[in-house]
Amino acid sequence: MTITVLVADDQAMVRAGFAAVLDAQEGIEVVGQAVDGAEAVRLAHELRPDVVVMDVRMPGMNGIEATTALQTPPRSSDYVPKVLMLTTFDIDEYVHAALRAGASGFLLKDALPDEVARAVRVVAAGDALLAPSVTRRLIEDVARRAPAPVVDEHLLAGLTAREREVLELVARGRSNQEIAADLFIAEQTVKTHVSKILQKLGLRDRVHAVVFAYDTGLVRPAR
C-alpha cells in the first residue's frame, strides 16, 4: 500500500525539501503541501493523507493547534491522521504540548533522507515511537523544568509489577530488544506486556506511554 503524506511548514525550502525526499521514496506519495496549520487542517480533511508531517512553529495556527484539531474531528468526519512533528532541540518546550495534542512522534529538521522516510513509515504503521533516545531526551528536557510529581499509585494500580518495570524502561527510551535483555525475558513477551500496558491505561501508543510515565511520577528526569 502507498502511504500518502501531507507536508506542513511555513518555510518554503524546508517544505519543498521534505516533499521531494518523501516523493522519491518507493511506497510514499506526497499528496499536498500546506504553509500553516489552518491550511494543513483544511487540506488534511480534503485529501485525507495517512500521515501529516507538521512543523511546530508556524504563523497563525501553529502545529500544536493544528494537531489538536486533527485529533478531534467534527462529528461529520471520522478521519484522524497520524501526525509527525517537525522539531529541533531548541524548541523542547513544545514537546509535551505536542504529545498531549496527539502527535505520534518527532522528526528532526536536519534528519537524513532515509530517516525521514523511515519515520513516516513507522508512524503510518502505528509504531509511534520513532527514536526512543530522541523522544526520551526531548521529554526529559521538558520534565526537568517542572517540579517532579509524586508517584500517582491510583493511576498505576492496574499494572502488575512486571508491567511497571516494562513501562519504566519504555519511558527511559529502551527498545523492546533492550528491555528483553534487561529483564531476561523474550522480546515477544515484552511486546505482549507493552500491548497490555497500553490497553490497561487507555494509551494510543508508546510515545504516550512515555508521557504517562513522567506525568505520574513513575519516571523522573535525569538530573
Brief summary:
The chain has 223 residues and is of the alpha/beta class. It contains 11 helices and 5 strands, in the order βαβαβαβαβααααααα. It has a 5-stranded parallel β-sheet, sandwiched between helices.
Outline the secondary-structure elements.
Layout: E1 3-8, H1 12-23, E2 28-34, H2 37-47, E3 51-55, H3 63-71, E4 82-87, H4 95-101, E5 105-108, H5 113-124, H6 132-144, H7 153-156, H8 161-171, H9 176-183, H10 187-201, H11 206-215
Parallel strand pairs: 1-2, 1-3, 3-4, 4-5
What features would you describe in this structure?
This is Response regulator transcription factor. The protein folds into two domains: 3-130, 3-Layer(aba) Sandwich (Rossmann fold); 148-215, Orthogonal Bundle (Arc Repressor Mutant, subunit A). It has eleven helices and five strands, in the order βαβαβαβαβααααααα. α2 (37-47) runs parallel beside α3 and α8 packs across α10. The longest helix is centred in the C-terminal third of the chain and has 15 residues, at 187-201. By secondary structure, the chain is of the alpha/beta class. It starts with a strand and ends in an 8-residue tail after the last helix.
Order of helices and strands: EHEHEHEHEHHHHHHH
CATH homologous superfamily designation of the largest domain? Response regulator
Using DSSP, what is the number of strands?
Answer: 5
What would you call the structural class? alpha/beta
Low-confidence stretches: none
* CATH hierarchy: architecture of the largest domain: 3-Layer(aba) Sandwich
Number of helices: 11
Distance between the termini: 44 Å
Radius of gyration from the alpha-carbon trace, in angstroms = 18 Å
CATH C-level label of the largest domain: Alpha Beta
The best one-word shape is globular
Largest sheet: 5 strands, parallel
CATH topology of the largest domain: Rossmann fold
Main sheet: strand order: 2-1-3-4-5
Query: For the residues shown, what is the average pLDDT?
Result: 85
**Structurally, how many domains make up the residues?**
2
Helix content: 40-55%
Strand content: 5-15%
